[in-house]
Predict the structure.
Amino acid sequence: MIHDFGIVWSERSLLLSGLGNTTILSVLSAVAALLIGFILTPALMSKKPWLATAVRGFVDGMRCVPFLLFAYIVYYGLPSLGLRLDNWTSGLAALTIYNAAYMAEILRGAWAAQPREPIEAGVAFGFSSLSLFRRIVLPPLLLAAGPVIGNQMIQIVKDSAFLTIIALPELTHAAASIQSRHYVPFAAFISAVFLYWGLCLVIEAGVSTVDRMAAARR
Amino acid sequence: MRDVTKVLDVVGISKRFGDLEVLHDISFQVQKGETVCVLGPSGSGKSTLLRCINWLERPDAGQIYLNGKEVGVSGGGVVMGDRELSQIRTHIGMVFQHFALWPHLTVLQNLMEAPIQVQKRPKAEVREEALALLAKVGLSDKRDVFPAKLSGGQKQRVGIARALATKPDLLLFDEPTSALDPELVGEVLVVMRELAREGMTMVVVTHEMGFAREAATRVLFLDHGRVVETGSPEQFFSNPETDRARQFIQRYSGETAGGRR
């Protein structure tokens, strides 16, 4: 058994590059999903019925599709519609679009729970459009939604493992390569698990920082 | 050219929400240094009137002039863009019923936010003035505290200081003591009385008859969206012209906690 872990250790550069790719994938798609979520949220709450219904359909639809299936569709399905993306682009797009739906729903809930008056005070004191959003609306919203957004980021990290099926060289893919090359499944996968765990601990640390800031303001 | 000794000139404002006419053809002026108290039963349109002054509600008809400049409408009758409206709004301070402090900012940051971000004034100068304002409302020791940690009375004093921080020409108060526990009303009224004495121009929507009686230069009595009576507080309270006003005074003078303070 110790010997197996020794083999994994000798392949550590492969594992670490997998971890690096998983981190890049997760960070990029988390940021992008959050930004798209911010665009979708006002649409979800729009007074125009066609817009609200369309976005609501997308959000609910995404949340009912298994991610693995969605990744298959993007990578293997879209080419038959004439859209061929490489595995990195497909993986990032799938992870981002899928999680944007969750982010939109998270932000909508937090937004709806924000008291109206401080925002109105912002308007009365001369804040408008972008400065109102950036200075007055956004900070309390992020403080309130922070823990749930953090949860979703952990979900993104774990979902990224599915992208091994489209041959994206992320952490799970690296672990699988090591195990098939040397036949050390337990050591290879357990090592990957611990690396995923480490990644999630970093996110947790971020969440608890946001949480402390929010608690001071409650 | 409009008379500029009038800080505020409200001309024939009307507002409806659906079928309900909330304000009907309301006109009044406020001279520099005046404290005008707007009184009236719940649902008489007082708050809506106040919110029309800085266009938080857009009036359906009529004009509002601040220092002779029309609010909300530029030359040629075009509705103002956000930027132009913001510029006018920074000359009007507002104090809210539920304080409406920004929860993510400390007390001092609440005071400094609009002067720095909207008025683009130098930070050092704004900070110095904000500290002086906090001292004035007696909250210097709370400057680094978040609003959630304050009592209602303290929150509202911060609310007043925040409204003063932009150096407004006009201060609007929307029922500033209605959300407070009775024992906290006094500390807020003390600050408001002092402002009135210093000659701040204020429009105050309130149920505090005691405050209206001694601090107001003029009283405006609203009922069903119309100005039913207007005059000096002595005249209004001791010798109201209408039955509606008489009933109102009787009801509220007995009821309000801070009425006789």
